[in-house]
Every structure is written in structure tokens, then in C-alpha cells.
Design goal:
By secondary structure, the chain is an alpha+beta fold. The protein has helices at 2-18, 22-33, 38-44, 54-90, 109-123, 137-140, 179-190, 235-250, 303-308, 325-333, 346-349, and strands at residues 127-128, 134-136, 171-173, 199-208, 220-230, 256-263, 266-275, 292-301, 317-323. It is rod-shaped and about 130 Å long. The structure holds zinc ion.
């Protein structure tokens, strides 16, 4: 019987050497350690053996069983390692290869300038106030001191909407961000009509004019308008704020000048120029040999506009200004054609 157990072990171990994969291993387990394996047969017949032989045969049978089980585990581990090595070789992963680049977008050059402007004014305490793109004639013109049929409207050819409206008050796409001044003042004044709070806002947004599209004019463009209303606000506040703004956006040493101008909603009105940063003021093609670049329009808020916004011009004063982020971007980067801004040409947009 002991010799039989030696044979069982020998046969099983040599059969295990031939096993090459998981399914063959499972077949081996059934054949040599399963219920009907020769080794189990030995256990089944232990009881029929002479009493004095039983302990030795039993010990030996258990030993064979443990060895076969250990051999099985070892073989299983070998097979797992072999499979891993095979898959590592077959599906090689080169970790030194660069990954697929993520397509990254960027802000439109006009948005970049707009945000820079907003950032500078935010540091001076101005809030951003967003107003609607579709306006009524009343807000876009009349409340800003452009009465119906006033010749100043000639400067702002407009896109009117074909929608039912009251006489003299059609809907249109806003021609400037200024109607937001009235909306903001009325909203602020409504919080305390007898003693309205001060206003310090900028109004960025898209404007629309019925213009012939050329290298210098577009039918849509952005504006950033500013408005400060309060008690004892004077023209020197306007000059100080805007000169400081010019230094922050164009450079520490840039010089500015104010020229008298006219806008229906400010009185007095001015245009602010900055010294040409291309030629340093000596005169070049960008500044048309003048040494100055026109940057923005501004002025003290007209009493009629203050009253329309709910602020008593006897007690309150204020200033307003407006500038075009595209114009500023054009000057800074010397862009020769305004049509590039809305043409969606990536060759242009990727330069910013
Ligand atoms: Zn110049």
C-alpha cells in the first residue's frame, strides 16, 4: 500500500509538469485530488486495513495529499505569472509616450481686454452691471436726451425690430450700452427714492449699429461704459479716474489729454486721448501723425438723464464714460482690420 501511494504521488507530480493552462490545471485537480481520485480511494479503504498498518498508511496518505495540494498552488501561481508576462509583452505600454493633448480654448481678444478693463475698475470700486441687448427707443434714446427725430440719432443708425409697439417707442438692438445707465439708476433709486444711494458701475456688452462693414467699422462691437453718480462728484473726479485707468492699462508713464466734445447725455462732454504708445508721441501712421490716440468719450451726466434715472440733479451729480474694447485691442496689437474680431478665423484668434 505504501508503494501504491508512492506511485500515486509520482504519477500526479509528473502529470502536473505537463499542465500548460488553467483548464488543464483544473482537470488535473479533478483527476488527482477529486472525489474519485486514486488517492481518495486509499482514504476510503483505510478502514478495511489491518489495524497495525493503518497509522503508517494514513500518515503517508495525508502527506501525499498535502504535497499534491502544495504543488497545485505553486503551479497555479506559475501559470498566473506566465500569463502576466505574456500580456505585458503582447500589450506593451510605453509610458514615456506623451499623452494626447487636450484641445484648450482661450478667451476672445475682445473679452480679454474687457476683463482687464473690468478688473481695473473693480479695484476702484466699480461693480459690473449687465443690461439687455434688445431695448426700447425710450431707453436707448429718449431718456438719454435724444428726443424722437433729434439729429444726434443720425450718428447711430439702428436695427429696429419688427414687433408690435407704441407710437415713437419701437424695439431695437441697443446702439450703445448707455440705456443700462437709466436701468441701473432706476434700480438703485427704487431702493430709497427720497435719498438714492450712490452708483458706481461699469456696463460691458455688445452693441449693434446699421453700419456698412469695412476694415474700420462693424455692425456689432462691444462697449464698456462707466457711470458714477453721487453727491459732490466733479469733473476732476472724472479726470482723475480716467487718467489712472489709462496709466493702468497703457503704462505707468502714459500722458492723457481731454478735448471738448459733444454727446446728448453728458454736459460738458469730452474725449480722452492717450499719448501714442507706438511712437511715444512723435507722430506715426497709427496715430495719423498727431502723437495722440483717441480712447474714450466721457462727460458729466446731463441733468435730464439724472432726473430720468430718479436722481435729483440739484443734489446729485455724476460722470459717465464709454470705450470700445475692440478699438483698444486694435491699438495695442496694431490690428489692421476690425472684421477679424467676428470672422471666427482661428489663425487670427490663436494669436492672443
Ligand atoms: Zn504714433
Amino acid at each position: 500500500m505504501l508503494a501504491t501511494l508512492d506511485d500515486i504521488e509520482k504519477v500526479a507530480i509528473s502529470a502536473l509538469k505537463e499542465v500548460q493552462d488553467e483548464s488543464a490545471l483544473e482537470a488535473w485537480r479533478v483527476a488527482h485530488l477529486g472525489r474519485s481520485a486514486p488517492l481518495m480511494d486509499v482514504f476510503d479503504h483505510l478502514g478495511g486495513l489491518p489495524k497495525d498498518e493503518r497509522p503508517a498508511i494514513g500518515r503517508r496518505a495525508n502527506e501525499v495529499k498535502r504535497r499534491l495540494e502544495a504543488a497545485l498552488l505553486e503551479k497555479a501561481e506559475d501559470l498566473r505569472q506566465a500569463a502576466l508576462t505574456r500580456s505585458l509583452q503582447a500589450e506593451r505600454l510605453d509610458v514615456s509616450l506623451p499623452g494626447r493633448p487636450m484641445a484648450r480654448g482661450r478667451l476672445h481678444p475682445s473679452t480679454q481686454t474687457q476683463r482687464q478693463i473690468a478688473h481695473i475698475f473693480a479695484e476702484m470700486g466699480f461693480q459690473v452691471y449687465l443690461s439687455r441687448d434688445v431695448e426700447t427707443d425710450e431707453y436707448n434714446f429718449q431718456l438719454l436726451n435724444f428726443p424722437p427725430h433729434h439729429p444726434a440719432r443720425e450718428m447711430q443708425d439702428s436695427f429696429y425690430l419688427d414687433a408690435p409697439h407704441e407710437m415713437d417707442n419701437p424695439f431695437l438692438l441697443r446702439t450703445h450700452t448707455s440705456p443700462g445707465q437709466i436701468r441701473a439708476m432706476r434700480e438703485f433709486a427704487a431702493t430709497n427714492p427720497d435719498n438714492p444711494p450712490p452708483v458706481r458701475i461699469i456696463l460691458p456688452g455688445m452693441c449693434y449699429r446699421y453700419e456698412q462693414i469695412t476694415a474700420r467699422s462693424e455692425s456689432q462691437f462691444t462697449q464698456v461704459e462707466g457711470l458714477a453718480v453721487g453727491k459732490d462728484i466733479t469733473f476732476s473726479d472724472l479726470k482723475g479716474t480716467l487718467s489712472d485707468f489709462a496709466r493702468r492699462i497703457f503704462g505707468e508713464n502714459v500722458r492723457t489729454r481731454f478735448r471738448a466734445s459733444h454727446f446728448p447725455f453728458t454736459e460738458p462732454s469730452a474725449e480722452m486721448d492717450v499719448e501714442c504708445f507706438v511712437c511715444g508721441g512723435t507722430g506715426c501712421a497709427v496715430c495719423k501723425r498727431t502723437g495722440w490716440l483717441e480712447i474714450l468719450g466721457c462727460g458729466m451726466v446731463h441733468p435730464v438723464v439724472l432726473r430720468n434715472g430718479g436722481y435729483d440733479p440739484q443734489k446729485y451729480s455724476g460722470y459717465a464714460f464709454g470705450m470700445g474694447p475692440e478699438r483698444i485691442t486694435i491699438l495695442r496689437y496694431r490690428i489692421d482690420d476690425i472684421r477679424n474680431f467676428w470672422a471666427n478665423d482661428l489663425r487670427f484668434l490663436r494669436q492672443f
